[in-house]
């Protein structure tokens, strides 16, 4: 069976400035057989992409939301915990405030 699905964002924590690049990667702790991955966003019924990576070259405000990946080996299906992607821009100043 497939288990221990994890999702990692680059930049870490899923906080990305508008116009920057976002890369999400999915991995499993355990799983035998050929693994396949799909990417999902809350509110969308159709997978965003297939494969262990999901890349957005130029992030826009509408890309913010909750993402997760699903791993399957054809028999078992397992989801990663959700990751909130936050797009920072002029409308959303960083919580740290001015420098």
From TrEMBL:
Coiled coil: none annotated. Residues 1-86 form the Ig-like domain. InterPro entries: Ig-like_dom, Ig-like_dom_sf, Ig-like_fold, Ig_sub, Ig_sub2. Transmembrane segments: none annotated. It holds the Pfam family Ig_2. This is FCRL1 protein. It comes from Circaetus pectoralis (black-chested snake-eagle). The lineage of its organism: Eukaryota, Metazoa, Chordata, Craniata, Vertebrata.
């Amino acid at each position: 069976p497939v288990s221990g699905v994890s999702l990692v964002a680059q930049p870490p924590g899923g906080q990305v400035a508008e116009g920057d690049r976002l890369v999400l990667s999915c991995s499993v702790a355990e799983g035998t057989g050929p693994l396949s991955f799909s990417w999902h966003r809350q509110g969308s019924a159709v997978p965003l992409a297939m494969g262990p990576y999901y890349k957005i070259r130029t992030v826009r405000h509408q890309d913010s939301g909750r993402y997760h990946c699903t791993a399957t080996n054809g028999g078992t299906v397992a989801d990663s915990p959700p990751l909130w992607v936050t797009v920072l821009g002029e409308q959303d100043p960083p919580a740290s405030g001015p420098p």
